Every structure is written in C-alpha cells, then in structure tokens.
Amino acid sequence: MACSPHPLDEALRLRPAPSSSPAAGRYEGQTHAGYWNMVGPFGGITAATLLQAVMQHPDRLGDPLALTVNYAGALVAGPFTVQALPVRSNRSTQHWTLSMQQAGADGAPMLTTSATAVTALRRQTWGVDDMRMPDVPAPADLPALPPGLGVEWLDRYEIRPICGTIPERWDGGGEHSLTRFWMRDAPARPLDFCALTALADVFFPRVWLRRARRVPVGTVSITVYFHADGAQLQETGPGYLLGQACGQVFRNGFFDQSAQLWNAAGHMLATSHQIVYYKE
Amino acid sequence: MACSPHPLDEALRLRPAPSSSPAAGRYEGQTHAGYWNMVGPFGGITAATLLQAVMQHPDRLGDPLALTVNYAGALVAGPFTVQALPVRSNRSTQHWTLSMQQAGADGAPMLTTSATAVTALRRQTWGVDDMRMPDVPAPADLPALPPGLGVEWLDRYEIRPICGTIPERWDGGGEHSLTRFWMRDAPARPLDFCALTALADVFFPRVWLRRARRVPVGTVSITVYFHADGAQLQETGPGYLLGQACGQVFRNGFFDQSAQLWNAAGHMLATSHQIVYYKE
C-alpha cells in the first residue's frame, strides 16, 4: 500500500526559493485547503509554517524555545514566501526574525505575518512542573467531536472535550472561559515542534464560551513557549495532549488567552498566550 | 525650584538619528546608570525604550496592544540605536518590527534586542475582568523595600511586598513561585504605556523564590499585552499597581513567568509572560 504524506506534512512543505542558497532562509510554500479556517488558513498552521522555516534552516542552533507570531493580514489561498533570518547566535541561544509574504492585489509582495523565534541548546538542570495536569478522564472514556463542524481545519484534529465545550446554545448565558480537551492530529502523527505549535492554537475563541455568543474574532498575536526537548516529544509520539485554555480579560475589542499543553504522562510540553480581536 | 526630569523620562529619551527623517524610525539613545542591573540595563527599561520608539513614531496608529521583546545580547553602558518600522497598517491595527543595536567590539553594529509590537485603535465593547485582583492589604499598610538592595534599577521603584518576597535565607527551601506586591516608579510618576511596560518586568526571578537559591538568570523573551487604554492609564496616574507573578514550569535551563498588573481600583491594566534562562 502506498503511504501518502500526512496533511500536516503537506501543509508544512517549504522549498528554498529559486536561485537562493539554503542559508539565505528564503522559502516558498502554499496554503493547504485541509487547514482552511473561515477567511484564511487556521492560525496554528501559519505559526507552524513559520517555525518550519527555522527547523529546516541550515544554520539553526538547538531546539525551539519561544515563538511569537503576529497576524498582520489574512492569507489568501495560494503560494506564499517565508523569510527566516538568524539575527544573532550566542553560545546556547539563537534569535530569529521571520516573515511571511504574499502577492497583494497589485502583484507586489505584501507582509501577511511577522514573527520572532528563539532556539536554544538545553542542558539538564534542576526542574519542577508547578502547574500540574488537572485530574481528568482518559481520552478513551470521552467521545470525540464529530467531523464536519463547519471549518475544514477542525477535521484535521481529533478533539475529545472534557469541559468548556463550544456552547450548544448561543443564548448569551456564558459564565467562564475555561476549556479542557484531549487532542491530537487526525490522523494521528508523531509529535514534533511544528505540530505542537499548531496544537497550541486549536482552542476556539474564549469570547464565544464566555458570552455564549458567536462574535467575529481573529488572533492578533500568539506566543508559544516550548518546555519540552526533542526527546520528550518523541516519547509523546502520536499520543493525546491535554489542552487547557482560559481568558483573563475581555475589554474594548481584545481578549487574552493563556493555554497549557501536557502529554498524557503529565509532562508540560508547552505554554501559550494570545491576544485576540473581537467585535461588539 | 527647577524641576529636573524623572529618571524614567531621562532613560527613555530618544532622538531621531542624524540625517534621517522622523518617519524613518531610526532613533539614538543612551543607557542610563539609574536603571543598571548586574551586567546590563534592567530588561524592563530596554523593553520600555523599544516601545518608546513606537510611541514617538509619526506614523503610529492607536495605542499599544502587544509587545514582544527578545533579549539577544547584553547592552554595554553607552549609546545605542533603535529602529522602529511599521510593517503593516490595517484599519484598526498596526504591526511593528523593532530592533536595538550597539557597536560591537570591532565597531560594527551588533543587534542586542529584537522585538515586535502591535498598536490598535480600540472601540468600546462588552467586556469583563475574569482574573480578579486578589484581596490584599492597602499599600499604606505595608512597608516599602529599603533602598540599596544591590542593583541600581531596584531603587527606581517603590515596592511594597505582600507575599512571595525575595528569600531571606538562600537555603534551598522554596516551595512556590507566587509573588504579590504593590509597586510604582520612584519618585512617583504618572503611568503611561512605557512605564507600564517596565513595571511588567519588575518581578525578581521566579527560580530564586522557588528554590530559595540564587542561580544566574536572564530573561530571553518577554511579552506584554496591554488591556488598558490611555484614559485608564491617566486615571491611574501616579498610583500604585498591584503586581502578581508566578512560574508554571522550570525545566532544563528555562522557566516561564506569568504576571498580572492591576491598578488600585482593581482594573487589569496589563498581563505579561516571559521565558527566562537559569543555570544549574
């Protein structure tokens, strides 16, 4: 049986721009219909694509430690370019600036996304996970969301809700913004830094839960801190992650979201924050 | 009586680089001895300085919404340049890339700090503060930290500890990383976005509290989300802010910190996150 690539690997495919050396960090990619959101790609896949450019850059030092992605404008379906530049390399950390561009209506390149990343060589030290994984039912004991919920990218994930599920009635009766669910790529796929990045953005907008009202929203900026190294991701393999997300403030058109991602063994793999526009 | 400028205003002073137009966003500044940390400036003042370049850029749209600052290398005492570029302006948000440079040992410019910012026009909408200010004693009922604690910048702040104070004994006996204190500029100064940015970084390293052990540390990346508009900052004036900070994970050389800043009226003004290097 022929083995077709995983949709995530298809979406993350970047090739060096023609007539540029790999070290120039210029890549070309293509939006993927499988990760389409309402008016552009799922933000998590855009963030993962920017990190992918860092991962395949020949001068990379170490593993991802921090990534901040600013969504400046929606991508349209089609090709895009990514620029990844290591702007300073130290002994154990390396700083990156990243950008994504697409041809605008007039054909001129237009910035859609800007980002920064830090990669680092990690050494074994004292450590502790103070934010413990909450006590929740096992994935096998919880039903998965059915496919076909309305946006294509959601079908690329297997999500098993625990609490704070998307409201069944949009009746304005929300009381909190805490969501917990098990999640993984669908079909299952071994975890890596890019997949983890996208998973950090799988949570639906906190304001929908908080208000039980479906107002227009859009992430403005997301930051992911990676607490796991490659070995811990490999141990996690294609297993479920427990995701938790909550908002702290909703005010005058913007709310924040804090999120934590643990593997099933209870190791915190990533924490993430975002600030999100909402209307009304 | 002559009125000398506040040290914060001195530290944040930027002038357009010679023979560049204001719209070019190239500024020159100077490190300030009053905000010196152990091997470079206090990280909060560097972050505030980068935001200051945005604030005085003639093309700025709206107020700060998000700022991410990556500390790529320590600054030495002396002059630096800041570059602030609005890379995309939409109807209500504007995206910025920022960098700070200093002459290296060979005289060539060297990047010390990279950053991104988002500014936004905010409109009145539904809102709620879900992360409530904890119930704490009033500033007047708490003694302030004495001056001369060892790093110069700390004397530029009035800090009235509530809980999670810096350990009195470095005996390895730490149990948590939660700190709360009242704080403001010293001398008192009306709050603005730059001052708020610096205040988001006033917390001492979480790992020192968690371990009651003073290991070498350094912030790698900080993000500040601004939830207040200019009017709310003006209402706060020179008043105290309640600051709260806590770490979630400490692992293999890096820990995270989440922080919240409220004014005395209980309004959440900013939330912040950082990832910090630690040794051992």
From TrEMBL, chains A, B:
InterPro entries with a match to the protein in the record: ACOT8-like_C, Acyl-CoA_hotdog, HotDog_dom_sf, TesB_ACOT8-like_N
Source domain of life: Bacteria
Region forming the signal peptide: none
Pfam families attached to this UniProt entry: 4HBT_3, 4HBT_3C
Boundaries of every Acyl-CoA thioesterase-like N-terminal HotDog domain copy: 33-116
Residue intervals of the Acyl-CoA thioesterase-like C-terminal domain: 141-277
Residue ranges of the region described as Disordered: 1-26
Protein name: Thioesterase family protein
Organism: Verminephrobacter aporrectodeae subsp. tuberculatae
Taxonomic lineage of the native organism: Bacteria, Pseudomonadati, Pseudomonadota, Betaproteobacteria, Burkholderiales
